[in-house]
Structures are given as C-alpha cells and as structure tokens.
Amino acid sequence: MRVLIDTSVFISYLLNPHQESFVQLILDAIIEDRITLLVSEPLLEEIERTVKRKKYLIEAITARELERFLLLLRAISEMIPSIDSPIPTITRDVNDDYLIAYAVVGNADYLVSVDKDLLVLGEVGTLKIVHTREFRTVL
Q: Cα 63–69–75 angle (5° rounding)?
C-alpha cells in the first residue's frame, strides 16, 4: 500500500511525538513492510518552511529535531520524481494541489490528511483521500 501524508500531520507529530501518534503508527507499518511512505521535495520543503516561519513552531521544534525528522523521512520513504509541468487546479486551496499531483505521480493508494479542502474530494481517480482516523482503520 502506497501512502502520501500531508504536511500538517507531520507537523502535529513534531509538536507532540508519542507512542500512540498517527505518525508512529505509520513508522511501525513501514517497519512491518505494510506500507510504502511516499514523499516529494516540495512536501519536505513545506514541512521545513512551515516550521521555520511560524513563531510557535520555532519555539516548540528545535532545528536539530526538524533536521533529524527530515533526514528520517528521506531515509524511510520513496521519493516521488519531480513534476516539471504545471500542476492542475483541483482543490479549493491551490496550495494543496501539489499533494494530489505528487500522490498521482507516485501511484499512491492513499493521501492522508486532516485538511478539509483535501478531504472533501474523497477520491481523485484511484487515489483515496482520507482523514488520519479513517486510515487507522485501514491499517
């Protein structure tokens, strides 16, 4: 099962990493070879940019924690090739369109998010867009 996870889910984990977190569940599923986690350069850049531009995140997540987490994601994930062509507008928030595009290019089965602008779509082709709660039941 191939899975792309939205930035906000990773940021939530960085703010409150614990054993029962959704990201920990994903890490366990990767170790058990039940899923392939997909990432893209734009996704990793968005995680980094988001943490570095918001004061409350800068205060809560150290530069070292962020760097280590991004290195971990690179090490355990499959990198989706760069998309050089224009990304079509699909969502209510055009800033989320790249996630759909990369999920499709990466042949993801699931895009996991807590973002209503993504979740309202439900599916795009064979890609299922689900909330973290729903994906827990899938696993």
A: 135
Mean pLDDT over all residues of the chain? 93
**Global confidence as pTM:** 0.92
Question: What is the CA 99 to chain-centroid distance, rounded?
Answer: 8
pLDDT digits over 73-103, tens only? 999 999 999 998 888 888 888 889 999 999 9
Query: Which two tokens mark 73?
Result: 């994601």
Contact in structure between 4 and 112 (CB atoms under 8 Å): yes
Helix/strand number for the chain, H first, E second: 8, 6
Helices marked H in 32-131 — which ranges? Answer: 41-53, 55-60, 63-76, 97-105, 116-119
Rounded to whole angstroms, how far apart are CA atoms 13 and 24? 8
**CATH no., domain 2-138:** 3.40.50.1010
Exposure string for 29-48, b = 16+ CB within 10 A, e = fewer: beeeeebbbbbbebbbebbb
Q: What are phi and psi of 60, to 5 degrees?
A: -95, -25
Mean pLDDT of 7-31: 88
